[in-house]
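re: that chain from earlier
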Amino acid sequence: ILDQWFESEPLKATLATDAVIGAMVSPHTPGSGYVLLHHVMGELEGRKGAWGYVAGGMGALSQAIARAATAQGAHIFTEKVVCQVLLGRNGQVQGVALQDGTEVRTKLVLSNASPQITFLELTPQEQLPKDFVQRIRQVDTCSPVTKINVAVDRLPSFLAAPNTCDGQPLPHHQCSIHLNCESTHLLHQAFTEATHGHPSSRPMIELCIPSALDPGLAPQGCHVVSLFTQYTPSVLVGGQPWDEQARNAYADTVFDCIEAYAPGFKASVIGRDILTPPDLERIFGLPSGNIFHGGMSLDQLYFARPAPSYSGYRSPVPGLYLCGSGAHPGGGVMGAAGRNAAQVALEDFRDL
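^ sequence. v structure.
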């Protein structure tokens, strides 16, 4: 698709990063074009295909939704671990059980956890069709993503566009900066290394500086840098663990690459947080670290997400709905899965 429209290899490769983001695929992998489409569909404030930063950080989005809900009478409880979905003798949802022993009784349960957690860990297996369980077990969740959050004491100054004397953010600081993508061959090479169990020696890096637009995220003069990097395998060659040494070795590789584009970057770093695929799974419940709760490949989209015949947010358990990234139409912080699931649940609730 990119070859049909563009001639510039750096431009094609930069656009191709959105075709592989969050996926263990190469730009040459058939079907990767859909992932590119998924990232440019929709609009922001009337601008088609545009993305934006959330003022106050991504957590502010959850807080805004929470305020809207509580204003309508919702009660929100956090840090309450759900350990089981409770079912009646007829298989109908009766509520959820919390880890502290509390039971919350309800006729409807909406889960934005992954399909794997929702149906393989929280729901009694005997209440689910065997073919459905098998399908959920087979969902491809392979993820190449390592996220690195960085605190710096000054803006990166790139050789291609040096900073001004006053140190104020320039237009490119307020955008998404893509590194190590001068050609699709480089991306394919990085992908190939990861398929053999090795972190990419020249990883794909998407660098964002949200504090360039939202100064409240960092002290004056300082900034936060978000690094979305690929490719890192979930399991290293030989079954080696992603221990502290492996994490730091990969982060050092990433920082060396950035240093080549922006000399002085490494000296500006005052803190970093490294989240490999196992970390993303452990901390955020992302299966294999997959940001979409499952690959956005053509065999796992539309009517097949999360499983054939169950793309309409209802599950095999009456009263249990899936509303997260593992549901149609997938991830991307678009809110479509949640909105659609809520409408289906409300429709059913009127008949209860």
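The chain has two domains: 76-140+290-349, 144-285.
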